[in-house]
Amino acid sequence: MKKSRKKLFTIGILAAAVLTGFAANAATDKDNGSVRGEIIIPLVQEVTVDPKKAELGKKLWFDPRLSKSGFISCNSCHNLSMGGSDNLPTSIGHKWQEGPINSPTVLNSSLNFVQFWDGRANTLKEQAGGPIENPKEMASDHDLVVNVVASIPGYVEEFKEVYGDADVNIDRITDAIAVFEETLITPNSRFDQWLRGDDNAITAKELEGYELFRNSGCVACHYGEGIGGSSFQKMGLLEEYKTENLAKGLADFTGKDSDNMFFKVPTLRNVVLTYPYFHDGQVNTLEEATQIMGKLQLGKKFTDEEVEKIVAFYGTLTGDQPQLMMPILPPSNNDTPLPKPFSEE
Q: pTM of the prediction?
C-alpha cells in the first residue's frame, strides 16, 4: 500500500510538471514554428553570433596547446564527429587518467539551464574554463594557457580583430570558446519537422513511440527545445540506481545530502549518437536505458514492443550535425612556452 501511495504521489508530481512545462513553453512553441502544441518544441533553425569571435573560438576549441601535454583539446572529449561526446563510459584525460563521469554532449549545450552534470557552471563561458585546469582533463592552468596563446602571433592578431585590442586573457579565451559552442545546434530533426506540420516526417511506429514517451510521463523531465537540460532530477526516484560510480550529482557541488543523486537531466537530441548512457556511462543501449528509466523514475515496466517503439522515436531526434572543417591553427613561434609532454610533471 505504501508503494502504491508513493507511485501515485510521484505521478501527481510528474503531471504537475508536465502542465507547468506546457504553460512555460506556449509562447516559444509558437515562435519556433510548431503547430502541434506539444511540450517538446522545435529547435531554432540557426543562431546569430559574431562570426569572427565564433571562428576564433573554433580554433581554440580544436587547439591541443590549451592542455598541459599539448595533446588534448576540447574536441578530445566532445568530439563533434561523434555527436559531441566521445562514446566512452568516462573520458580519458591527462596521463591517460579516467575521468569520474560520463562526458555529456556539447551539441545544443547552449540550451542547458546550467552546465556539467552537477550544474556547477551557470554558463558556457564559465564551463569552458573548468576542463583546462582540471588535473584529470587538460591539466593546465589559466596563466599558462594565456601565456601560450599570447605568444602565438596569429592568435594575437585575431584577438585584436575580435576584441579591439591585442590583450589575451582567460576571460576572452573562454568567451570565444563559448560563442563557438553556441553555434553547435542540430536543427531540422525529423521530429522537429513533424512538430512543424510535416505528417510524413516520422513513421506511424515512431509516432506511437512518442505517444508512449509522452503519456508515460517521460516529458516531465525531457521537454522543451532541448528535450532535457532544463532541471535537476533524482536518479532513482522510486528505486535506488545501483552504480559503482562515486559521483553524487548536485550534492558534489552543494555539499547537501538532500541533493545526493540529483543530476541535470541530459538532452535527448541526437541521443542515438551519444552512447553510452547515464552519468556513469554504464548503459550501452537505448533499450536498456529506457527500461531502467521506466522502472526507477516512473514505476513502469515497458514491454519489449513498447521499448522498440520508444527507441524508434529516439531515432527521430537526430538533427543536422555541424559541418565543420578542422581549422588551420596559428603556428607557434620559437619562443612559445609549449605545454609539457605527458612524461613530465
A: 0.89
Residues catalogued as catalytic = 137
* Tens-digit pLDDT profile for residues 228-267: 999 999 999 999 999 999 999 999 999 999 999 999 999 9
Residue 326: predicted pLDDT: 83
- Burial class from Cβ neighbours inside 10 Å (0-12, 13-18, 19+) for residue 256 reads exposed
Q: What is the mean pLDDT of the chain?
A: 91
The closest alpha carbon to 227, from 39, 56, 72, belongs to 39
Task: At 188, list the grid cell.
Answer: 531540422
**Single-letter amino acid, residue 7:** K
Judged by DSSP in three states, 235 sits in: coil
Report the C-alpha gap between 13 and 22 in whole angstroms. Answer: 14
Task: Report pLDDT digits (tens) over 297-339.
Answer: 999 999 999 999 999 999 999 999 998 888 999 998 766 555 5
Region of 57 (left: φ > 0; alpha: ψ -120 to 50; beta: rest) is alpha
- Asked if 180 contacts 57 with a C-beta cutoff of 8 angstroms, the reply is yes
Q: Is the pLDDT assigned to residue 23 strictly greater than 60? A: no
Return the ∠ at Cα 225 (arms to 220 and 226), rounded to 5°. Answer: 75
All three cell numbers of 200: 510524413
Condensed to tens digits (0 to 9), the pLDDT of residues 52-109 reads 999 999 999 999 999 999 999 999 999 999 999 999 999 999 999 999 999 999 999 9
Cβ neighbors of 250 (< 8 A, separation 6 or more) are: 118, 119, 232, 256, 259, 260, 262, 263
Tell me how far apart the terminal alpha carbons of the chain are, to the nearest angstrom. 59
The residue count of the chain comes to 345
Q: Give tens-digit pLDDT for 91-100.
A: 999 999 999 9
DSSP per-residue letters across 65-134:
GGSSSS---HHHHSBTTTTTB-SSSS-B-GGGPBPSS-----TTGGG-SSBSTT--BSSHHHHHHHHHH-
Given its phi and psi angles, is residue 173 left (phi above 0), alpha (psi -120 to 50 degrees) or beta?
alpha
- Return the amino acid letter for 93: G
In this structure, which amino acid lies at residue 340? Answer: K
